[in-house]
Each structure stands twice: as C-alpha cells, then as structure tokens.
Amino acid sequence: MRGKRAKKREQVGDRKYGNITISRLINKVMQDGKKTTAEDLVYTALESAAESAKEKDIATFIARVVENVKPALEIRARRVGGANYQVPVPVSPRRQETLAIRWIVDTSRAKSGTSFDKTLATELLNGYNGEGEAIRKKQDTERMAEANKAFAHFKW
After folding, report:
1. Domain limits at 64?
2. ∠140-19-32 over CA atoms, to 5°?
3. Quick one: what percent of the chain has pLDDT higher than 70?
4. In a domain, 71, yes or no
C-alpha cells in the first residue's frame, strides 16, 4: 500500500429529502462550488422524471434508477510476469453507486441542445426504465468483464 487509506466520512442527506443518494448526485452535478444551482437542477430533473414515471416517492425513484445502472463486475488491470491482464473483479456497493451516479451525470452532460435539467431528467427516466446511455455503459462494462473471465484466477 502506498500510504494511509482515506477515512470514509459520514455523509449527510440533501436538504429537501434527506436522502444520501440524492446528495451524492447533487455533489456530482455541482460545478465551481455552486451547490444551490446544482440542487435546483437536480430537484427539477428528479421531480419531472418521477412524475413522468408515475412514481410518487422520489427516494424510491432514485433508488431504482441507481439500482438499474449499478454494475456487478468491472475489470482491473493486473501486471503479472511482464504482461498486463484485464482481470474481472466484483464491485463494492459504494463504488457501484458512485459509478452509477457518475455515468448518469456524464451521459447527461455529453448531450447538448437542451438544458441540463431536461437531459438529466431524460437520463434518469431512461435509467428507471432500464434503457439509455448509462445502462449501455453498465452492459459494456459487464460484457468486458465476462469476456475476460479466463483471467479471473489472477485476482488477489
């Protein structure tokens, strides 16, 4: 190990719903320290997407979106005997949620033409329904891990 591992801090929920997942989504959307702007964008996107999905509770909506986008396996590069192998490893629950939120926000940012809150709402709705770019990213990651299953014995 190269140094001390950072301590995991206890996270607080967001202001409106008290949900930790929504708080992490807001922090990922935030740019240049403008948290209130990020909160407005996320709350607008969440409420419109949940309304489109006919979901009453925002917390269950975001939980289902993240659950659908979470990857089970990913690949890590391991160097063994001078060769690099792509080794499939299971993903920890914390990292699963982090990757899901990152993929949703990144795919929303990549789209242009409409406002960010509308593209985020569309991506959240697609994640809820099990389709869209973030779901495709999850499937690609898991497919690559499945293809490299032969190197699973290098996991340690």
Report:
1. 20-154
2. 75
3. 98
4. yes
